[in-house]
Design brief:
Layout: H1 2-19, H2 21-25, H3 28-42, E1 57-59, H4 61-64, H5 97-110, E2 114-118, H6 124-132, E3 138-143, H7 152-158, E4 163-167, E5 182-187, H8 193-206, E6 207-215, H9 223-232, E7 238-241, E8 247-250, H10 251-255
Parallel strand pairs: 1-7, 2-3, 2-5, 3-4, 5-6
Antiparallel strand pairs: 6-8, 7-8
Helix pairs in contact: 5-6, 6-7, 8-9
Length: 257
């Protein structure tokens, strides 16, 4: 079944490539934006998340950020991850290719001055954020453990002078230096309801007026994340991004409520 499923997706990808062949050749810019468009708009197969909680609105990324699918992004990913876009209880914590495209496209679209990541693990997601950030962007990551990078390329990317890595428990970390100064926050650390709530409360304090918070693992495999975000949706405008396990909060949108 796995082989047939992959073959089916490969046929879809091949058909789409043939259809877009002349479009891609028109200009380098269109060629560079092609794969972003393919993941964000064109190939919506199986949803990554299980059914959403009551009150949490589901949106396409393009609905929230018009034109984002045409941003030129650089993605560092393994080839076989092309087939890892559907929700799987066995890999429910991993960031899928579609989610990486979403996260990196948002970096390109928003051009944040400062990025903060809760939970970097082996640095795969962080490296993709770094690769798509502007030269001036300051990037911070916080993880409770020090881990080796996924591979040598990721290690090289994370040695960027603008990347600062903290090894500490977010429950006791001093966020004072970051208050009201972060434009882009990605939360993917401890998944208990208490931890997600605490990390989120600190994240809200760190946001600039145009800031954005993105949570990962909004699915029933992570009941703490699922419960907290469903509850949060009653007091704040947040959106579940279709075909991902990502939820987004925009400070500007909530200020306009």
């Amino acid at each position: 079944m796995r082989i047939l499923d992959q073959l089916s997706k490969l046929i879809v990808v091949t058909a789409y490539l043939v259809k877009q062949y002349f479009y891609i050749l028109q200009s380098p810019k269109k060629a560079a934006s092609f794969f972003t468009e393919m993941y964000i708009k064109a190939i919506d197969s199986k949803p990554t998340t299980l059914p959403n909680g009551k009150g949490l609105k589901r949106k396409n990324l393009e609905e929230l950020f018009p034109g984002i699918a045409f941003k030129n992004i650089s993605v560092y990913a393994k080839f076989d991850s092309l087939f890892d876009n559907s929700y799987s209880p066995n890999n429910s914590s991993l960031v899928s290719t579609k989610e990486i495209f979403t996260l990196t496209a948002l970096v390109k679209y928003l051009s944040p001055n400062r990025i903060f990541e809760f939970g970097s693990f082996k640095g795969w997601t962080l490296a993709n954020l770094v690769e798509n950030a502007e030269i001036k962007t300051q990037i911070f990551s916080l993880d409770i453990l020090s881990r080796d990078a996924e591979d040598s390329k990721i290690e090289s990317i994370l040695n960027n002078k603008n990347v600062t890595k903290f090894i500490a428990d977010s429950a006791v970390f001093d966020f004072t230096p970051f208050l009201k100064s972060i434009d882009y926050i990605f939360i993917d650390a401890c998944h208990s309801e208490e931890s997600v709530r605490k990390d989120s409360e600190n994240a809200f304090k760190m946001l600039t007026p145009n800031g954005l918070i993105i949570w990962h693992d909004f699915n029933l495999a992570h009941p703490g994340v699922y419960k907290y975000l469903t509850e949060l949706s009653k007091s704040k405008t947040i959106y579940s991004i279709k075909n991902t396990a990502l939820v987004i909060y925009s400070q500007r949108d909530n200020d306009l409520r």
